[in-house]
């Protein structure tokens, strides 16, 4: 019956709406195929030796991720990977011709320095980390010749076999090294392949190369290959210093892919890469940071396997310099400022020009309010849904749900101002111009929307950001679209759908790019929400949904916004807005039937077997501690893992009130990653399981304390033993008290910070296997005691910990380790 009440204008509006939906659907399908590279056929293992073979590279990944497996610091797999890489390089060297000289080195790096990571000031000290290097050069090259560095890391984070991160990177470099030799090519400049073994410990391998290797000063450019997922196109996320690395990449890569907005956004994503060591902290070397971004569901999980790799990766690129951007990106805004004068020039009426300018400003505000509502509407619906739901992130395992839930209401938000302001208030005298009032309204709305995008483009440029291309391309294509529309009006009339089509068709390239970039950005964000952090209540429960809703609203604004000045008059009907809002409500209802997680989109859980000790052989307390890293709390986990609850808590009722919450200091061993945790829980367990496998525990001891001079600072000489720990990933020292100096980081203290509710402290992470104990000194500027809390992360698991991990459902990825903690006062 509702259909019978539709007017002819409503019916035309729905025709336009469904036509646009079909158009956007076809473009989305095209974009999906571009992103997943369905049109690229990789070469097999029998490919010619002078061609890069993806299949040959995958065989290296298979060895690293399956045959060897976990390659964390402290595990046998890391050493096995180093041996495998060096063996492969030796085999390549044996096939080299007389035109090249090949040098292969295995170096052990040590160092100590301060850095800021994830916003926290910490100190890092390491020893005995392994780097494998190959240098390919012409036979007459010199050791001091400028070289190009290619870097990838072969270590993995705890619990992950690292097929994507970063077995794929190592495999690509091995295949590239083979190709360089087997092709018979003589590189005009030396090429250095650096396979570093300690990136996951905060870029220690690259730091070791940059501070100690004899080839470091010869590096004139570099490419860092990284992975933030299991595939997709190889996006340049960081480039510089300078612009020429991007130019060379654009000219040389077969399927280049970069976006200036990626560099703007990269700093907002938790984490860092070796690019930092080469280009900023310990060098000013021009280079590229090339990263696989898709497949983020499996990043740093046990699901980062060969089967999860996204093959056939490639992409496209448009490139121009910042100097050109200074000109190009300011032209649209200049046009917006000049158009009122140019359009009203035939009338010779300056007042009419100013009136047109004021109308354009109103149109800009009109369009801006629509974009703002396009963001507010989905956020509102997201919050309302969560108020009546027991869990968030329903869309996580099914991203299409997020689009179905938030895109219709975003479009409704865009249209609401046009419905409310049907009678656009004009400042111009219609009788003085040879245009109808309706045409003047369309003109004001078009130039207002054009001004909105040109203003954003200029704002990006002035702020030093590079993401202005997204809005620049919108304003660029709007101009020919408006010209064709104005010409078509003379033939088909202002109210003709054919005139509207003449406006939309020139905007199709803009629409393709906007959906391409917006869709990729949305997918990347959705996948990363699984590790966005567990924030404190009451707002933490809403954060993931609100972020995704806001981003999809923004994407809708920049994708559909350029169409609205003309298309909006067909869509701005109350019946269409009701239809979109009803669709949103229906999608929200349907989404409640979907579970947030699956084997392909796992829920991340952290399980720590916590052991508090006194001295070398006495246990104070043992517990299993749990944490999560997204919006669904531990109560959600335990609701779906009843066997785990029964094991650690018995049949008693479990809630945040009845259970013991862990102290933030409990997670010091993985600081600053632990800053992502909230409301972690602790369950006591047996100490006998630890005593059966460990004879001695990590501990500190001192031989003497002395004043360096009368009334001067007090120096404490310490020795740190890891006890009988088996697979130590890292040890952390948290030092509080009147610390004035220490033997780490060239006797430089980092900025003090706070861990939990504790006093200001200094944190140092120690890593690297050795038969010798750590020896260091601390200096205090008063007689007040120094307190040193230590935490040692051992990846070896007791049998109870293994069994407990096995009780979780398959759609949960559980990172498990043992942490030994103790406190010492000197």
Automatic annotation (TrEMBL):
Source taxon at top rank: Eukaryota
GO BP, sorted A to Z: proteolysis
GO molecular function, one term: metalloexopeptidase activity
Chief place of localization: endoplasmic reticulum
Keyword DNA-binding annotated: no
A Pfam family hit: ERMP1_C
Record flagged with keyword Zinc: yes
InterPro entries named in the record: ERMP1-like_C (IPR053973), Fxna-like_M28_dom (IPR048024), M28_fam (IPR045175), Peptidase_M28 (IPR007484)
Chain segments annotated as transmembrane: 16-35, 326-345, 365-388, 400-421, 460-483, 503-526, 538-564, 576-595
Peptidase M28 domain mapped to chain residues: 131-313
Cited Gene3D superfamilies: Zn peptidases (3.40.630.10)
Residue span(s) of domain Endoplasmic reticulum metallopeptidase 1-like C-terminal: 601-823
Cofactor(s) the protein needs: Zn(2+)
GO cellular component, one term: endoplasmic reticulum membrane
Subcellular location as annotated: Endoplasmic reticulum membrane
Keywords tagged on the record: Endoplasmic reticulum, Glycoprotein, Hydrolase, Membrane, Metal-binding, Metalloprotease, Protease, Transmembrane, Transmembrane helix, Zinc
Family the UniProt entry places it in: Belongs to the peptidase M28 family.
Entry protein name: Endoplasmic reticulum metallopeptidase 1
Source species of the chain: Sesamum latifolium
């Amino acid at each position: 019956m509702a259909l019978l009440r539709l007017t002819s204008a409503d019916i035309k509006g729905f025709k336009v709406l469904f036509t646009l939906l079909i158009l956007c659907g076809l473009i989305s399908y095209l974009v999906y195929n571009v992103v997943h590279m369905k049109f690229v056929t990789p070469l097999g293992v029998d490919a010619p030796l002078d061609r890069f073979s993806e299949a040959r590279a995958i065989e290296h990944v298979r060895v690293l991720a399956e045959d060897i497996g976990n390659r964390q610091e402290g595990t046998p797999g890391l050493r096995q990977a180093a041996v495998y890489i060096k063996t492969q390089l030796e085999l390549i060297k044996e096939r080299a011709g007389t035109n090249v000289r090949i040098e292969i080195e295995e170096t052990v790096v040590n160092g100590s320095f301060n850095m800021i990571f994830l916003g926290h000031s910490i100190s890092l000290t390491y020893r005995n980390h392994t780097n494998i290097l190959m240098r390919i050069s012409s036979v007459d090259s010199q050791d001091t010749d400028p070289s190009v560095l290619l870097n990838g890391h072969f270590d993995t984070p705890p619990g992950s076999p690292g097929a994507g991160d970063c077995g794929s990177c190592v495999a690509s470099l091995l295949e590239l090294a083979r190709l360089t030799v087997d092709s018979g090519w003589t590189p005009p400049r030396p090429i250095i392949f650096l396979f570093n073994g300690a990136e996951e410990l905060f870029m220690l391998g690259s730091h070791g190369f940059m501070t100690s290797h004899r080839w470091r000063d010869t590096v004139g450019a570099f490419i860092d290959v990284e992975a933030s997922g299991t595939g997709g196109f190889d996006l340049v996320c960081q480039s510089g210093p300078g612009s020429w690395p991007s130019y060379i990449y654009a000219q040389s890569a077969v399927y280049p892919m970069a976006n200036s907005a990626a560099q703007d956004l990269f700093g907002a994503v938790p984490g860092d890469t070796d690019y930092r060591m080469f280009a900023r902290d310990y060098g000013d070397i021009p280079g590229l940071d090339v990263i696989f971004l898709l497949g983020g569901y499996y990043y740093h999980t046990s699901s980062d396997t060969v089967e999860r790799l996204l093959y056939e990766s490639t992409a496209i690129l448009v490139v121009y310099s910042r100097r050109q951007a200074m000109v190009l990106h300011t032209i649209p805004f200049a046009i917006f400022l000049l158009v009122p004068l140019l359009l009203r020039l035939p009338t010779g009426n300056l007042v009419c020009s100013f009136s047109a300018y004021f109308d354009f400003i109103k149109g800009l505000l009109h369009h801006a309010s629509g974009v703002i509502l396009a963001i507010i509407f989905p956020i509102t619906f997201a919050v309302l849904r969560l108020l009546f739901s027991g869990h968030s992130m329903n869309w996580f395992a099914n991203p299409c749900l997020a689009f179905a839930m938030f895109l219709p209401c975003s479009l409704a938000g865009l249209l609401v101002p046009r419905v409310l302001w049907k009678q656009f208030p004009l400042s111009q005298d219609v009788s003085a111009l040879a245009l109808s009032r309706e045409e003047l309204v369309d003109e004001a709305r078009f130039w207002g929307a054009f001004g909105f995008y040109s203003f954003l483009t200029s704002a990006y440029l002035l702020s030093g950001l590079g993401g202005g291309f997204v809005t620049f391309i919108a304003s660029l294509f709007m101009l020919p679209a408006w010209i064709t529309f104005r010409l078509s009006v003379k033939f088909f009339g202002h109210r003709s759908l054919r005139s509207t089509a003449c406006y939309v068709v020139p905007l199709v390239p803009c629409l393709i790019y906007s959906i391409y970039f917006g869709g990729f950005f949305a997918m990347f964000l959705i996948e990363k929400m699984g590790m966005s952090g567990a924030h404190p209540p009451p707002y933490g429960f809403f954060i993931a949904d609100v972020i995704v809703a806001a981003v999809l609203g923004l994407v809708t604004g920049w994708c559909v916004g350029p169409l609205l000045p003309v298309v909006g008059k067909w869509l701005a009907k109350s019946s269409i807005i009701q239809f979109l809002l009803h669709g949103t409500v229906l999608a929200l209802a349907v989404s409640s039937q979907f579970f947030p997680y699956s084997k392909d989109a796992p829920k991340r859980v952290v399980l720590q077997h916590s052991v508090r000790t006194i001295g070398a052989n006495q246990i104070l307390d043992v517990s299993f501690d749990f944490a999560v890293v997204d919006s669904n709390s531990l109560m959600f986990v335990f609701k779906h893992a009843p066997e785990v609850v029964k094991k650690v808590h018995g049949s008693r009722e479990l809630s945040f009130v009845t259970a013991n919450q862990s102290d933030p200091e409990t997670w010091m061993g993985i600081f600053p990653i632990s800053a992502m945790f909230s409301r972690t829980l602790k369950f006591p367990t047996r100490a006998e399981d630890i005593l059966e496998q460990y004879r001695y525990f990590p501990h500190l001891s001192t031989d003497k304390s002395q004043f360096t001079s009368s009334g001067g600072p007090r120096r404490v000489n310490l020795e740190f033993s890891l006890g009988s720990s088996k697979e130590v990933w890292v040890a952390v020292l948290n030092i509080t008290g009147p610390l004035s100096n220490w033997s780490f980081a060239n006797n430089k203290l980092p900025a003090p910070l706070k861990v939990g509710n504790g006093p200001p402290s200094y944190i140092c992470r120690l890593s690297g296997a050795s038969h010798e104990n750590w020896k260091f000194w601390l200096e205090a500027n008063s007689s007040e005691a120094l307190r040193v809390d230590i935490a040692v992360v051992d990846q070896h698991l007791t049998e109870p910990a293994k069994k407990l991990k096995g009780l979780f459902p398959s759609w949960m990825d559980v990172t498990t380790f043992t942490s030994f903690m103790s406190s010492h006062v000197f």
